[in-house]
Amino acid sequence: MLSVEQTRVQLSKNTEASKKSQFGQFLTPEKTAIFMASLFPDANGNCHLLDAGAGIGSLSDAFLERWHSGGFHFQKVALDAFEIDDTLHMHLQKTFERHQCWAKLSAVIRGDDFIHAAAEAISGSFFAAKMPQYTHAILNPPYKKINSNSAHRFALRSVGIETVNLYSAFVALAVALAAPRGQIVAIIPRSFCNGPYYRPFRDFILERTAIRHIHLFASRNKAFKDDEVLQENVIIRLERGGQQGPVTITTSTDDSFADLAMYEHPFERIVFPDNPERFIHIPTTTAKTTIELSPAVHYSLTDLGIKVSTGPIVDFRLKEQLRDMPEEGTAPLIYPGHMSNAGAIWPMPGLKKPNAIVCNDETEKWLFPNGFYCVVRRFSSKEEKRRVVANVVDPAIFGNHAVLGFENHMNLFHNNRHGLPELLARGLAVFLNTTAVDESFRRFNGHTQVNATDLKQMKYPSLDVLIELGKWAKQHSEITQKMMDDQFGKLTA
Ligand SMILES: C[S@@+](CC[C@H](N)C(=O)[O-])C[C@H]1O[C@@H](n2cnc3c(N)ncnc32)[C@H](O)[C@@H]1O
User: Would strands 368-369 and 403-406 be described as parallel, antiparallel, or unpaired?
Assistant: First the structure.
């Protein structure tokens, strides 16, 4: 008989990519499952275990294995495994049979949709099958966007859960179903830690649980390497109704856990008390970042009177208004491709993007007066050294054009929809391009996308310091990373 791990390897080789993505079917490798099971504190009494989106049962298997080998002191375990894909039930059954020789285990496989079953049970629907309060939940949920008008979205909304992805829905439901002090361990993408879409989910878990532990895989494709999943993944342990205390952070390069490092951080370093967005930071060393250590960097954009927005021009929605090259009655349309460290080049005939947008009643509201702006790409490539890449838009490049269009792949800093003073725009770009900003940014943003909300919640130096940085930048035609870092250090020391 194949082991659970052998079955997983075989299945992940033989399952078509389309099916993997339809069901979000990326099965957990054995070592990761064992690590996840090891994160629960030892406990006794009766365990009600939830494995939602159980696949072939790799996670339950690791949990039960730990119990048999004395790592848990339960009298009994009652396990509910939800798996919607009934072709996996046979494997799931086999996994549980390995443990069923123990009369103390009762395992039930449920083939219904976990979101509907859980939402109905939580809402107390008369027809719903009852669900226990789970003392433990171990999850590797499916990852897939939930459409705004889908049945899943309505079911979740009916129990007060507003979220955009199946993975956060599964975790929120597991939290809702958990017993007081119930422990939830889940492996999920890091995307919930920041960004506006996951704000209600962050609120949901932060209001109901204490974060006890976060594990970060340092390399973004290592957790599910057999399935070529390119995500930064974390493993998180939450305690329902727990009093929030320090959080254990562990890191490892990959799922061999060979270089496991462990730190403990006060909660204030994970969710900053003055951050209304409640971003979840994952510091990987106890050392504070240069930004945290620098008392000179403590201004919000509101303090500085600066706004940051996503470029408002979504090109595929305005196709008819776009022109390859400028012509009478058009305004420059700026894409990240127009920008470089040496300044902007516009128009750029070989860009494969339109260079201009027609000025008319429909487009007027999206256009900004020509002026100095600081812009930051929303998507950097993985190869790029820095996540935050800032450039200055100089009005001289655009000649006599009165207005400019900013395309949606960039964020722009502006003064209430007008340009910024030149030195401020230049100073902001230098600050944003420093290693210090990059380092602090990586603590809360695990992907290559930079949202306006990310930039909004960061702390900045004073206007005076930014303007000094701008003056300095204007005096140098070529600026290296080291020069920027040194100058920033000098001005904020
Ligand atoms: C990422 S896989 C993980 C499987 C398993 N927990 C593991 O760690 O190996 C998620 C599983 O959830 C199942 N699934 C997807 N949507 C589901 C739903 N709405 N209800 C129950 N199971 C679901 C998929 O078929 C898939 O097997």
Answer: antiparallel
CA of 251 to the centre of ligand 1 (A): 25
**Which residues lie across from 379 on neighbouring strands?**
449
Q: Ligand 1 site: residues with CB under 6 angstroms?
A: 23-28, 53-55, 58-59, 82-85, 88, 113-115, 140-142
SS3 61: helix
Q: Which residues of 17-49 are buried (b: 16+ CB within 10 A; e: fewer)?
A: eeebeebbbbbbbbebbbbbbebbeeeeeebbb
Q: Which two tokens stand for residue 323?
A: 């022109």
Measure the CA–CA gap between 162 and 165, rounded to whole angstroms. Answer: 10
What is the greatest pairwise CA distance in the chain? Answer: 83
* Contact (Cβ atoms closer than 8 angstroms) between residue 404 and residue 429: no
The pLDDT value given to residue 222: 53
Atom of ligand 1 nearest to the CA of 117: 20
- DSSP letter string, 373-414: EEEEESB--TTSS-S--EEEE-GGGGTT-SEEEEBTTEEEEE
Ligand 1, atom 27, lies closest to the CA of 55
Backbone angles phi, psi at 25, to 5 degrees: -95, 80
Question: What is d(CA 166, CA 141) in angstroms, rounded to the nearest whole number?
Answer: 7
Mean pLDDT over the full length of the chain: 91
Report which protein residue has its CA nearest ligand 1's atom 6.
54
Question: β-strand 339-340 against 343-344: which pairing, if any?
Answer: antiparallel
Going from the Cα of 114 to the center of ligand 1, the distance in angstroms, rounded, reads: 9
Q: pTM of this prediction? A: 0.76
Choosing from 50, 61, 91, 114 the residue with most ligand 1 atoms within 8 A of its CB, the one to mutate for a pocket test is: 114
Amino acid occupying residue 459? K
Model confidence over 181-208: pLDDT tens digits? 999 999 999 989 988 899 999 999 999 9
